[in-house]
């Protein structure tokens, strides 16, 4: 049996302000730091250790990972950072307040933008400062890989190749893996691992800063999953 630990970053400043975040690189809130430390303590108490870590290029996930690894005295393990694990790119919604956006466009529309896997949020243009092509950390990406907007299906389409090429080989080698990522990149991964329908993934909400354990068989089929609290 193989175990993989998934953790959504601790609460961010924009989670706190209820703003669409996506690829905006906002920091953890004070509460987010506390949540990450607590996650590390829980993993330690339950005897977890890791051989390799995977995270995004966004500081809220990276910092959460580091705080967890520090608690475990595991800051030395190899750490792989990739844009493939970034939050879903929220297009022109990034930065807007979710409640104000619901007042303007209607709660139904905002719910679809947030949770319908087929619904694409309004796109940014390439001239928009939020366009990732202007950010050094994405300089290796081809133009076609730089999103203007993403729905959950688009996120699945970039998370899965990374899962297959980088994370699965580590699991096959029986390495203990931790992934520190985001609400929607983890939903994308779980949609695949758990074979969820669109209706099921719409209802899936992942809390910030709580380790989520997936137990997998040798063929990487899910046996069960549970939160460590
Ligand atoms: O704003 C975001 O990037 C995400 C995660 O915080 O929000 P939502 O839950 O609406 O997908």
From TrEMBL:
Belongs to the phosphoglycerate mutase family. BPG-dependent PGAM subfamily. GO terms for biological process: gluconeogenesis; glycolytic process. It is an enzyme of class 5 (isomerase). Substrate binds at residues 8-15, 21-22, 60, 87-90, 98, 114-115, 183-184. Coiled coil: none annotated. Its EC number is 5.4.2.11. The record marks 182 as: Transition state stabilizer. It catalyses: (2R)-2-phosphoglycerate = (2R)-3-phosphoglycerate. The gene is gpmA. The active site is at residues 9, 87. It comes from Arcticibacter svalbardensis MN12-7. The keyword Metal-binding does not apply. Keywords: Gluconeogenesis, Glycolysis, Isomerase. This is 2,3-bisphosphoglycerate-dependent phosphoglycerate mutase. PROSITE patterns: PG_MUTASE.
